[in-house]
Amino acid sequence: MTLQGHDDTVKSVRFSADGRKIVSASSDHTIRIWDVKSGKQLQTFTGHTGRVSAAKFSPDEHNIVSCSCDGTIRLWDIHTGNEVMKLKHDSNKIWDVNFSPDGKYIVSGLQNSTIRLWDVHSGIEIKRLLGHSRDVSSAQFSSDGNMIVSSSSDKTINLWNVESGERLKQFEGHSERVMHAKFSPDGKFIISCSLDNTIRIWDIEIGKQLKILEGHLSSVNDVTYFPDSNTIVSCSRDRTIRLWDVNAGKEIQKLKGHSGSVKCIDMKEVDMEFVFFISAIVENNFELKIKKYKLTFII
């Protein structure tokens, strides 16, 4: 299924928790919500004056948070479609934004190498995390909300204590910009992807790299875990989506069919039988694609 509506590159895609909706962010300055079953566009949110880098659902799915190269984070009411809050980041471009698991806080990653924490209720910045030396490309809370993992153009991944703002660990190994770093669902590991064409798995407790997953022929743009923490899906400039066995450290399937660089990806299991992938490509930049696969494909 192809979802059409954006007028420029799609920068990020995310499923809602129930898998019924998708939120997309685009260089056309808009955020859009889509119905998964029908593929129809449900809502468009306008207000940003620069390309929108990321958009995510709140944990209760009442709101969407977005960040942009216009230097703002915006909070939107899904039911009314209205902008309810605007958080200004000086003139710095913002590359990523995420809610805390309880929905009370927002973390953002900036062009100026800082990570900032915000109180959702008041809109006040409550903390700055300093430690990266270049753009922060991603920032995400752990499932318990106690830690943040960030990735950067400085080729490193940092682990932070939310309460103290202290950097707990720094992971080094990538030779190019780290596009994304994310916690595993069980909270024991971090997965990262990079312009160096690799995916890497890191052990949080010992602070070391466990595996390098190689196979993509160009930069790896996005990566995410399956809920069981045993499988990973990645997308790349090489026009493929690949699935990996975490324990074996091996590629188990390559999904072709995209006509250009696959910019972003998310996945959602349905009834433990099927898996949906939502992805967006750069060259054919007005399209989102939903693909459905039987889980027996990837076991």
From TrEMBL:
PROSITE patterns hit by this protein: WD_REPEATS_1, WD_REPEATS_2, WD_REPEATS_REGION
One Pfam family named in its UniProt record: WD40
Keywords: Repeat, WD repeat
Protein's organism: Reticulomyxa filosa
Record flagged with keyword Lipid metabolism: no
Highest taxon of the lineage: Eukaryota
Repeat in keyword set: yes
Record SUPFAM superfamilies: WD40 repeat-like
Name assigned to this protein: G-protein beta WD-40 repeats containing protein
